[in-house]
Amino acid sequence: MISVKKRREIKAFLVTASIGIVVLGGQQVLADAASEMVNPKDKVLVGYWHNWKSTGKDGYKGGSSADFNLSSTQEGYNVINVSFMKTPEGQTLPTFKPYNKTDTEFRAEISKLNAEGKSVLIALGGADAHIELKKSQESDFVNEIIRLVDTYGFDGLDIDLEQAAIEAADNQTVIPSALKKIKDHYRKDGKNFMITMAPEFPYLTSSGKYAPYINNLDSYYDFINPQYYNQGGDGFWDSDLNMWISQSNDEKKEDFLYGLTQRLVTGTDGFIKIPASKFVIGLPSNNDAAATGYVKDPMP
């Protein structure tokens, strides 16, 4: 049982850490809201919009995901990540194409959200992404992202690499280097190209697979939203409770949320440090959005 005092500490700590929840060239640039490169002005609530048609019964618990236009994203989300920028079969460079709209129509969707002060990022990767960038492809990768920004009006990019793609080929050096160049490119125009990441938390140790991305993009990334879900028995040792606190232990959910966040924003117990001002917690928005990690009993 967690004490009232600790509950208050948890609330204060998580608010300080800017809570967020995960639920999930060459073309003429139009003079519309999508040209503005909108950034959030306050705390962020991040959601992922799926660029594919729902097949029904595709949820982790047997439910069905919803089909809706990007601009119809539920009110409250002020950062929407479009999933995903991936490498098409038979190609070597990741790209993006709307699955059910023309380029002009999709840009209009982003423009509508930008006009409401909401940021729209392109998410690179996903669980089944086959992204294997080589050093010789860095310039092409930079140009492709800029082309996507010019075409659709994206406000930044979310690194969402998982599994083998994290360390594949030269990804750990090419992707950070390319994103630095893109951020500097837009800075010249007085714009901030947002760079965010959504790493699975076990990769956030000081020598973990995401360390090269975080270290190489230090002072460049805007925030990081670690995945606090789908990690089963992974967690940390709590010396105060004298026990292992795993992500899948619902009875110790409050201790897990507080303890992992504390370790990440302070860089203790072997975890890499992520400043509280650039930290967003990644959680499923409902029980069907992930196999584990949904907070069944939110704090009062």
From TrEMBL:
Its EC number is 3.2.1.14. Belongs to the glycosyl hydrolase 18 family. GO terms for molecular function: endochitinase activity. GO terms for biological process: carbohydrate metabolic process. InterPro entries: GH, Glyco_hydro18_cat, Glyco_hydro_18_chit_AS, Glycosyl_Hydrlase18_Chitinase. Gene3D superfamilies: Glycosidases. It is an enzyme of class 3 (hydrolase). Pfam families: Glyco_hydro_18. Residues 43-300 form the GH18 domain. Keywords: Glycosidase, Hydrolase. This is chitinase. It comes from Lactococcus lactis subsp. lactis (Streptococcus lactis).
